[in-house]
Amino acid sequence: MPGEDLPPGFNAARVFIDRHLAEGRATRPALCSLDQVLTYEALAHGVNRAAHGLVRLGLVRGDRLLLVIRDEPAFYFLFWGAMKAGIIPVPVNTLLRAPDYAFMIDHSGCRGLIWSDACASDVTAALSLVPDALPVALPVSEAAPLLFEHGPDTFDAVDAGPEAPCLWLYSSGSTGRPKAVVHAHRDLVATAELYGVRTLGLRADDICFSAAKLFFAYGLGNAMTFPLWVGGTAVLLAERPTPSNTFAMIERFRPSVYFGVPTLYAALLEALKTRSPDLSSLRLCVSAGEALPPDLFHRWHAATGLAPLDGIGSTEALHIFISNRLDRPRPGTSGCLVEGFEARIVDDGDHPVPVGEVGRLLIRGPSLTLGYWRGNGRLDVPFERGWLDTGDTYSCDAEGYFTYHGRSDDMLKVGGIWCSPFEIEGALIEHPSVLEVAVVGREDAHGLVKPEAWVVPTAGVSAGPLLEAALQAHCKTRLAPYKYPRTFHFVEDLPKTATGKIQRFRLRRGDGWENDR
Ligand code: 3UK
């Protein structure tokens, strides 16, 4: 099993970066962005200089380095450079707000923070919110001359170990703060081999383009570890993906593999009604992040001749563990287990449910997180006797195809990205016109979930489009820009239990609560 036969002292940077020079791929393209193409040799040199530079600036083994970096070559240099030096890279979402970054700086105890210049305002505001100055805090424009452009071209990766922590990713929970999901060196190998190679069949001539950014576990595999594992090429786009820039990237760089999320497939399909970009380079399309409605599957297949392969992954598993296959995709399902993973579907008493029945999905496999960072080097291990509860409800048929039936908590996936209804409620309740609020998920015309707000306005405030616009604008300044409610209902009161708990299921159904003001 990949990941089980790795030598003691294993450092993933040796196989993802150094190996390619030893195997004669120095002049092959490793990554392309709008302004440059980097060969495997140029990549290795940038990584090695970054490793030297981070050490020169005073970072040491075990230190965390927060990276608020868009999809650009600097992400690769810093990520692998840190790993070579035994420093833990912690890529974080570039769309967050100052209080989110301040939390992560404090919680991670990081000693370094490097950010893309485009993210400067929220990151520098966060730095002013935390009590202590960090030894290393730089925008990429200042880090680049210090770290990537000078210095020795070689750096021997420090010895680590297959099970040694190598990477953290923050993932949102339904309540409370994001959790730092810790992954080991072997997890990168296991996902690239078991899903990238054995499930998708990725090869050295593949060019991978991902709508999901590198700071998501999904994007990190798609546009970095998978192409680097097979000696292929990644295509990077720094901007947020739109149909226009997606089509432009596909026509210019001719990727063979496209990794999207259902919301983007829906947007691309809308755009294809009025445009006919050349998508002929694609041989494989993947969808993940939230369930792909069968209608989108069929329409994408009709428009492009390619079956989008839906698969479910998670930050805790690092990548996809149940997936459709090119030779037998089944629309409306997440597909079958990826080699190396096991699943159990259980009822509330933790007993396996009969074939075809719905229950909680538990998984086991070779890339599951070491645990959540809890401070002082300790981890909270989210396992029940070795099994990880995904928080999803699933059924599995006699042929081994898994079907998604929703979350077992209140969390929403919007455009494939976590959205906590409680966080949106927390922002809305701070607005002076809001007396009470509840946020639930509502399916749009494509069957994709969007946040919907139910608001009781304060006395004397008139409900209507003006209030709605003001509340949306309020959310967009307080929260990451994708976390605003797409629709609002203004009501006299909210349905509650005898003990005063909001009955979200009634809001979701809308029964008796449609009498908007
Ligand atoms: C949901 C899906 C139905 C599901 C991810 C690596 O999404 C990824 O990681 P996150 O931690 O979220 C995990 C949760 O998202 N989900 C994801 N994909 C699907 N639900 N069908 C799907 N195809 O609730 C899961 O527990 O952000 C991480 C690689 C791929 C990924 N999708």
UniProtKB/TrEMBL annotation:
Domain of life (superkingdom): Bacteria
Residue span(s) of domain AMP-binding enzyme C-terminal: 423-501
A biological-process GO annotation: secondary metabolite biosynthetic process
GO molecular function, one term: acid-thiol ligase activity
Keywords, in A-Z order: Ligase
Protein's organism: Pararhodospirillum oryzae
InterPro entries referenced in this protein's UniProt entry, alphabetically: AMP-bd_C, AMP-bd_C_sf, AMP-dep_synth/lig_dom, Benz_CoA_lig
Annotated protein name in UniProt: Acetyl-CoA synthetase
Keyword Disulfide bond part of the UniProt annotation: no
NCBIfam families according to UniProt: benz_CoA_lig
Residues in AMP-dependent synthetase/ligase domain copies: 22-373
Keyword Cytoplasm: no
